[in-house]
Amino acid sequence: MKTIIILIFTVLLLAILGSGCNMLRGAGEDIENAGGSIQRTVDHND
What pLDDT does 24 receive? Predict the structure, then answer.
């Protein structure tokens, strides 16, 4: 019984950590895209 609880907890923990990594990767891409947009605007106005 104890082994099943530990297994379920481990699976849930891995799922949470995996989704967190994807969220951070997505946020990084959004920030990078915003930086590119700002740079294009600055270049266009020079």
Answer: 72
Question: Rounded to 5 degrees, what angle do the CA atoms 38, 45, 35 make?
Answer: 10
What is the pLDDT averaged over residues 34-39?
Answer: 86
* Neighbour-count burial for 16-43, b at 16+ CB within 10 Å, e otherwise: eeeeeeeeeeeeeeeeeeeeeeeeeeee
> In the block, which residue shows the tokens 């930086």?
35
Q: Does this model's pTM top 0.85? A: no
C-alpha radius of gyration, the chain, whole number: 20
**35's tokens:** 């930086």
